[in-house]
TrEMBL record:
Transmembrane stretches, start-end: 12-31, 37-57, 78-107, 119-139, 159-180, 186-204
Name of the protein this chain belongs to: Cation transporter
Predominant cellular place of this UniProt entry's protein: membrane
Protein species of origin: Streptococcus iners subsp. hyiners
Pfam families: Cation_efflux
Membrane association type: Multi-pass membrane protein
InterPro entries in alphabetical order: Cation_efflux_TM (IPR058533), Cation_efflux_TMD_sf (IPR027469)
Compartmental location: Membrane
Any one annotated GO CC term: membrane
Amino acid sequence: MDPKKIEAHCLTVSAIINGLNGLAGLAVYIMTDLNALLLDGVFSLIAFISSLVAYHISKHSHRKTATFPQGLHFLEPLYAIMKSLATLLLLIFAVLETAATAFAYFVHGIAHKMTTGPVIPYTSIMLFVCFGLFAYNRYMNKKIGNISTIIAAEAKGNLIDGLISAAIGVAFLFLAFIPNKSPLDFLHYTGDFFVTLALALISFKEPLTLLITSFKELAHGTVHLPEIQECLYEILEQYLEETEDVDIHIYKQGMQVRIKIHLQDVEHDIMRQLVAKKPHILDTLKQHHEYITVEYSL
């Protein structure tokens, strides 16, 4: 199946599920007024909007223009960067908002007891849905050699959403067993802050890792994905086995893969043979990755 079609299908499924998750999260937030649930709901709505944007990017990133003759593949890591930044900012703002409530309780004695309502049933359902969507997106990306930066970003988002739901469920289940007037009674008033802080600490690594990886892609950094490298090296070695001083660098930007072969002190006859073989090398490589180019350099 064409990688772009798989990508588009994954984004369609993600958009529908994320939209429903977001509406459910906001509905439960209105019932309980818990900022942890607002974080969960808004995160899903951001994921819904970003899935729609990603679908549009996926459809047009391979198109070539006069300004970008290699295509608009840079939009894919750029999308992942923007989504990572939005996620990190959301986590930071959620912690700051709930910190104000905890500060008001501990410093000024202003207390508002939390209403948990349907938190446990909601988080249980969201946990199953988000982890299921995470597994689906990872499986589909693996089918195409983990080439899609967009699907990888979606899967990271699904994982974070699932972790948020799981942490909320576990935390408020624990709160349900804390009696009033006990030493831990303060958690009935400030638990929202501690849960949100824990969620932020748990979830912070994933968008940060994606941000760094996507920035390297955008800046034309070399690939460190065994699924891509091993396959391509195996093919290239068949054509370059007679050439000793060769350095192969593989770059990836979105779904576009660029192979740069550095030939050092190569005899003229061998160089001419490699140039003649280049169309055949490219045809063989395109059987594994549709959007791929090969360059020689001295």
